[in-house]
TrEMBL record:
Entry superkingdom: Bacteria
Locations listed in the record: Cell envelope
This protein's UniProt keywords: Cytochrome c-type biogenesis, Disulfide bond, Redox-active center
InterPro entries reported for this sequence: Thioredoxin-like_sf, Thioredoxin_ResA/DsbE_sf
Name of protein: Redoxin domain-containing protein
């Protein structure tokens, strides 16, 4: 079984999200921004660490495909992809060069590479431009990863890291240009304008579309549209399942502790892979083929929960798919009360959870055990370290008078169903 260390990953993702929110709150200067097709002027000076070079010869890189990989130590996806980028450079060393660029200082980056076991295990040693301000002004972002491809003095792509592949490197080098989905954190989705509709006379309407290349992912948003004055509901570049699941939450049809793990989803569809990314492809690559964008304009402003129900009906009547709750009998990890047994044993990787309900929810997110049912419902602080088996888990839980047992129970599941299947 998996180790409970993924808890740390989950908390890292939460802190990354908070970090990005803080970035978004800042006013970002777009005046020096470069676009695809524009000339790239290298910086006159940089601060460089790691890699095999003590400087970067930009002229020597003119006929190579250069990847500028924008990086911050809080970005888990950026860290995860580094070994892959190094392998690509090794494979295509005569035509491809990777340069990591970060706004963080040398001490932060030195400490990061010293402590990160994943990168040490994969022997990652790519050149890093640190304490950067130059590239950040030319390629501003609200979220990362963000990948910049340069070739023969021009910006050839501003995209997501999932599109940095052998095929795309070779194609760009051979053809001199490439058309990759644009990552634009400042682009605003507008299906109404794209459709050519006359906004001044629009009374109401629903617009479905696929992936929008020049728009960043946007979760559900309910707001008054400044152009039409109508009430606008929208989502951009989302998977269908993710969009429907969020609607269920907005409609207050899901308990706040319900974790829609994949073993709690029933697929009544011909091909579930068009709804959720079950492939090995990076999410952004999968979204190009399967992502959807949606806009709805209403004259009436409804509460978000009611509006979510209206939109769910749009998906059913126009897109032919619906989502709802049902019950299913399946093995569950049931947390039960038992006689507490004190222990002073030290727990490696110890984490603290305020109450059994919070602990059960984290267990569900980690997906190490079957779906969790909390029958204890206590507010006691629970401290649990790394475990690999249920036996090890129970050994730590018994201190709090809790024991987990695998039993079959009928529990809530999400059903995704094609209405004309």
């Amino acid at each position: 079984m998996k180790n409970l260390k993924p808890f740390i990953i989950l908390l890292t993702l939460i802190s990354t999200h908070i970090n990005l929110i803080a970035q978004n709150a800042k006013v970002i200067d777009l005046s020096k921004r470069l676009y695809v097709g524009e000339q790239f002027t290298p910086p006159s000076s940089i601060k460089l660490m790691r890699g095999m070079e003590n400087k970067i010869n930009w002229k020597a890189l003119y006929d190579k495909v250069v990847l500028i990989d924008l990086f911050e130590t809080s970005c888990g996806s950026c860290i995860q992809i580094m070994p892959h980028l190094q392998e690509l450079e090794k494979k295509h060393g005569n035509i491809f060069k990777v340069i990591i660029v970060t706004p963080e200082d040398k001490k932060t980056m030195t400490d990061f590479f010293h402590k990160n076991e994943y990168l040490k295990e994969h022997k990652v040693n790519l050149p890093v431009i640190y304490q950067d301000d130059y590239f950040r002004k030319m390629f501003p972002y609200k979220s990362i990863p963000q990948a910049i491809l340069l070739y023969q003095g021009k910006v050839q792509a501003i995209t997501s890291s999932g599109f940095i592949t052998s095929d795309n490197i070779l194609k760009l080098h051979q053809q001199g240009s490439i058309d990759l989905p644009l990552k634009d954190d400042f682009g605003k989705g507008n299906l109404l304008a794209a459709s050519g509709s006359v906004t001044e006379i629009l009374k109401a309407g629903v617009f479905f579309s696929g992936y929008q290349s020049d728009v960043n992912y946007q979760p559900w948003k309910f707001e008054t549209d400044s152009v039409t004055g109508l009430y606008r509901s929208s989502i951009f570049n989302s998977g269908i399942y993710s969009a429907l699941k969020s609607l269920m939450a907005n409609a207050k049809l899901l308990d706040k502790y319900f974790v829609p793990r994949m073993d709690r989803v029933v697929w009544k569809v011909k091909d579930s892979t068009i709804y959720e990314n079950f492939s090995a492809n990076p999410k952004e690559v999968w979204l190009v083929d399967n992502g959807i964008s949606y806009e709805r304009y209403d004259r009436i402003k409804r509460p978000d929960s009611i509006q979510a129900l209206e939109i769910m009906y749009d998906f059913e009547s126009i897109y032919g798919v619906k989502i709802y709750l049902d019950k299913k009998l399946m093995p569950c990890l049931v947390l039960k009360s038992c006689v507490a047994v004190p222990s002073k044993e030290k727990k490696e990787g110890q984490m603290v959870y305020v109450g059994s309900k919070v602990f059960a929810t984290f267990l569900d997110y980690v997906n190490q055990f079957p779906p969790v049912i909390d029958e204890v419902n206590i507010d006691t602080r629970i401290e649990v370290g790394n475990v690999k088996t249920l036996e090890e888990l129970n050994k730590q839980l018994v201190v709090y008078g809790i024991r987990g047992e695998i039993e079959e129970r009928k529990i809530d599941v999400l059903v995704v169903e094609e209405v004309n299947l």
